[in-house]
Amino acid sequence: MLESYSRCWTEIDYDAIGHNVREVQKLVGNTKIMGIVKANAYGHGSVKCAKALEENGVDFFGVSSVDEALELREAGIESSILILGYTPPEHFHYLHEQNITQSLVSLEYARKLNEYAKEEDVIIHAHCKIDTGMNRTGIQYQKEKKDWDSIIEVFSLTKISVDGMFTRFPVSDDLGEESATFTKRQIELFNEVVSKLKSMGIKTGVLHVQNSYGILNYGDLGMDYCRPGLLYMGVTSDDAVEIASEPDFIPVMSLYANVSVVKVIEEGQTVGYGRHFTAQGPTRIATISIGYADGLPRLISNKKHEVLIHGQRCPLVGNVCMDQCMVDVTNVEDVKEGDVCCLVGRQGDEVVTIDQISRDACTINNETLSAIAARVPRLDKRG
User: Fold this and answer.
1) 230, 21 in Cβ contact below 8 A?
2) N- to C-terminal Cα distance for the chain?
């Protein structure tokens, strides 16, 4: 662990990303990796993660917005970038100016992008999103509706270079029979589109369908790319979800905060907003300098959630505040101002995980990690 820094901070082992990339690669064979670095790489730092991924052979990145794409370009990332979401028309110019690939979220959107490209006499690079069952964005190609004419029109647009095609799995994390059948049907539908286009002499470009659980549960599907997000950070969305593989991932992020105050309260005294914790006897309370404005969910309040101080497990007590929280350290000797509290990671022989925070907050690790605030420094564990 690095020395105490500020009031709260994360430490990120960017070297471990290389290990996790190799673990992903074992699962997908010759399929290449598109590193998903949206939402500040799920709270891990998009630029540093992208550079670590590039060092380990990743040559394509996925982001959610043009702002995220521009951040990578401004940081010197020259690899291909795909915007997975919507780009407003007033920002279309960045696509050709910065060599950014845009997802075609609908036929109408593709037409609008093509008209802009005609007016500017430029070519816009894009990937066509095929909606095989997520029913979010993309052109529908499902059992109930196969909008083949729209797909053909997208590929015929004169100023759009369709360099790839992809779909999204909504239940690839579920190994149950119904969900597995649904996902396998999505794969079949996508492959059907690919075969029909190829039979017409239309080049599909690169193909990618697998999100993180698609990688873990469906292995090598013979596509050009897969799209891991949390996996290269060494975690899944939920530790309790059964998976069909046994990767050896290393979590890359730890989360720490300083003890700011230690005080003794007497039996009957209460702690925090709402007075939800009442001391049953003399109790030592340590105030920790991290709260929900830093990304520690208020929902973990009063659920016996544990953190580590001096390598020992200590329960949070009372409500998590905006900038602080309180911990019962009665059973830990010599806790004092400036001591380090570990909220995620290892301290001594004990480990606390991001999944434990997510479980107590009734959410998934994707949300917990991406909610860690920008004001929390991301320190490079490599020094």
Assistant:
1) no
2) 10
Say if CB 372 and CB 350 are below 8 A apart. no
Summarize pLDDT for 182-228 with one digit per residue, the tens.
999 999 999 999 999 999 999 999 999 999 999 999 999 999 999 99
241-283 pLDDT per residue, tens: 999 999 999 999 999 999 999 999 999 999 999 999 999 999 9
CATH number, domain 14-233 = 3.20.20.10
> Domain segments of the chain: what residues?
14-233, 253-352
321-369 per-position pLDDT tens digit? 999 999 999 999 999 999 999 999 999 999 999 999 999 999 999 999 9
pLDDT surpasses 90 at 5: no
| Selected catalytic residue, list 14, 38, 51, 292 | 38
Which residue is catalytic, options 26, 184, 263, 273? 273
The contacts of residue 310 (CB under 8 Å, 6+ apart) are 332, 333, 334, 335, 339, 347, 348
* Plot region of 6 (φ>0 → left; ψ -120 to 50 → alpha; else → beta): left
Reply yes or no on whether 273 is catalytic: yes
Q: Looking at the domain that runs over 253-352, which CATH code has it been given?
A: 2.40.37.10
Helix, strand, coil share (%) of the chain residues, nearest 5 = 35, 25, 40
Question: In the annotation, is 159 catalytic?
Answer: no
Tell if the pTM clears 0.85, that is, is over it: yes
Contact 307, 343 (CB under 8 A): yes
Contacts (Cβ under 8 Å, ≥6 apart) of 21: 33, 53, 56, 57, 58, 232
Calpha distance 185→76 (Å, rounded): 40
